[in-house]
């Protein structure tokens, strides 16, 4: 069993004039055997959270518990936690075998033959059994990371902590290692907290993802929940590629009125926004269709600004025909919106297009607080 709980955890760093709140009142329950991904932009507090769990950083306020025992004051070595870093942190003068066995030799009185057995088994799991007698300098980056992961596995810990372990690898190797890591984590059933700033990695790897911004936890949810039911505008914009489009609107007589468009709402949707009068309309690029003719009041005349081919299709940047942007010839990318369109439809910059934005695909946020309204 390894259930990890963060209860109102805060980390403040003293910084000359004032304090930096790196982690702000974060609470989360991580289940036994769960793979949870901590994701968010640079500087949001991911590494600090992980380092507090590992015991490499003190906790300013709050409690971290492992199986109902507070571990705030436990030394890192006494936490039964293994951490894997982005920089592999291997000892250059030791062989792979020595790198993997060193921790157990130093901190336990485990017999040599059992240590050997564990090293061989972890090396087999990571596919590095032929490299055991080499030194890190004789290995590729991918192989070194396998050694670092193997070294964590050898310890057979209650919890794995991983801080961007794949970010030094090239794209192809990274996606291969993602699947491999997931398989190994599932086989071993070890509770894992994995930090990344890469939302694709978070979406594909985590049983659940915890999204942080500015030290605050925004949402803990399965990847699909975070994608379909983001708790707020930050999560909505962070998850998904290209990012969700946002339009500032005011609510007038059951319609969202924005720059160059009016979007009528069904009664049910009107109820969900209550008396909020400034609403941010969110639409994912993949939920916008390009059609031939305007058939409903959720179809909009637009002008194509830029077409960006992305292999399987195109990202098409559009501006509402009646918006200020469209009338200015130098349409500015930041003021257009993007639709992801399958490969078959031909669209060209400068041409008119009809964008269909189905009501069941829209997201609505309180413009003031950013909270999701439905
Ligand atoms: P990245 O993805 O860039 O690694 P992160 O989400 O892991 O970022 P942290 O490294 O946890 O972010 O940093 C969170 C905040 O705390 C940042 O504002 C950072 O500057 C600050 N911080 C981190 N460590 C210290 C420290 N030792 N002293 C002062 N401030 C710190």
From TrEMBL:
Q: Which CDD domains match?
A: ABC_MalK_N
GO BP field: carbohydrate transport
Subcellular localization is given as: Cell membrane
Topology in membrane: Peripheral membrane protein
GO cellular component assignments: ATP-binding cassette (ABC) transporter complex, substrate-binding subunit-containing
Q: State the Pfam families in the record.
A: ABC_tran, OB_MalK
- Report keywords, A-Z: ATP-binding, Cell membrane, Membrane, Nucleotide-binding, Translocase, Transport
Q: In its keyword annotation, does this UniProt entry include Ligase? A: no
Its EC top class is translocase
Question: Where is this protein primarily located?
Answer: membrane
- Top-level taxon: Archaea
Q: Which residues form the ABC transporter domain?
A: 4-239
Could you give a GO molecular-function term held by this entry?
Answer: ATP binding
EC number(s) from the headed UniProt entry: 7.5.2.13
Catalytic reaction equation(s) = D-xylose(out) + ATP + H2O = D-xylose(in) + ADP + phosphate + H(+); L-arabinose(out) + ATP + H2O = L-arabinose(in) + ADP + phosphate + H(+)
Subunit composition?
The complex is composed of two ATP-binding proteins (XacJ and XacK), two transmembrane proteins (XacH and XacI) and a solute-binding protein (XacG).
Q: What does this protein do?
A: Part of the ABC transporter complex XacGHIJK involved in the uptake of xylose and arabinose. Responsible for energy coupling to the transport system.
> To which protein family does this belong?
Belongs to the ABC transporter superfamily. Carbohydrate uptake transporter-1 (CUT1) (TC 3.A.1.1) family.
Note the NCBIfam families from the entry. Answer: PRK11650.1 (NF008653)
This chain's protein is named ABC-type D-xylose/L-arabinose transporter
Organism of origin is Halococcus saccharolyticus DSM 5350
């Amino acid at each position: 069993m390894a259930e990890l709980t963060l209860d109102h955890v805060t980390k403040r760093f003293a910084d000359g004039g004032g304090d930096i709140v790196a982690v702000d009142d974060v609470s989360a329950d991580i289940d036994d055997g769960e793979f949870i991904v901590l994701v968010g932009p640079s500087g949001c507090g991911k590494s600090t959270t992980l380092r507090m769990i590992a015991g490499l950083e003190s906790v300013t306020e709050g409690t971290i518990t492992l199986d109902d025992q507070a571990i705030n004051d436990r030394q890192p070595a006494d936490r039964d936690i293994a951490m894997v870093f982005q920089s592999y942190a291997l000892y250059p003068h030791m062989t792979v075998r020595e790198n993997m066995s060193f921790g157990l030799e130093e901190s336990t009185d485990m017999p040599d033959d059992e240590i050997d057995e564990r090293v061989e088994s972890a090396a087999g799991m990571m596919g590095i059994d032929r490299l055991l007698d080499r030194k890190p300098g004789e290995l590729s980056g991918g192989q070194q990371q396998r050694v670092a992961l193997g070294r964590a596995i050898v310890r057979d810990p209650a919890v794995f902590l991983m801080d961007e372990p794949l970010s030094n690898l090239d794209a192809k190797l990274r996606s291969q290692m993602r699947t491999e890591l997931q398989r190994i984590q599932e086989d071993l059933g070890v509770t894992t907290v994995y930090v990344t700033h890469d939302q694709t990695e978070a979406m594909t790897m985590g049983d659940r993802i915890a999204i942080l911004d500015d030290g605050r936890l925004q949402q803990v949810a399965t990847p699909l929940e975070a994608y379909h039911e983001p708790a707020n505008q930050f999560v909505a914009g962070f998850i998904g590629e290209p990012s969700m489009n946002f339009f500032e609107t005011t609510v007038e007589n059951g319609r969202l009125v924005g720059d160059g468009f009016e979007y009528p709402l069904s009664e049910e949707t009107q109820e969900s926004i209550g008396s909020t009068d400034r609403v941010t309309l969110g639409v994912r690029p993949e939920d916008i269709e390009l059609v031939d003719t305007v058939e409903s009041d959720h179809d909009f005349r637009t002008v194509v600004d830029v077409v960006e081919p992305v292999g399987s299709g195109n990202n098409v940047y559009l501006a509402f025909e009646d918006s200020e942007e469209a009338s200015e010839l130098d349409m500015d990318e930041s003021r257009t919106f993007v639709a992801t369109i399958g490969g078959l439809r031909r669209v060209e910059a400068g041409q008119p297009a009809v964008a269909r934005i189905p009501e069941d695909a829209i997201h609505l946020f309180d413009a003031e607080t950013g909270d999701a309204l439905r």
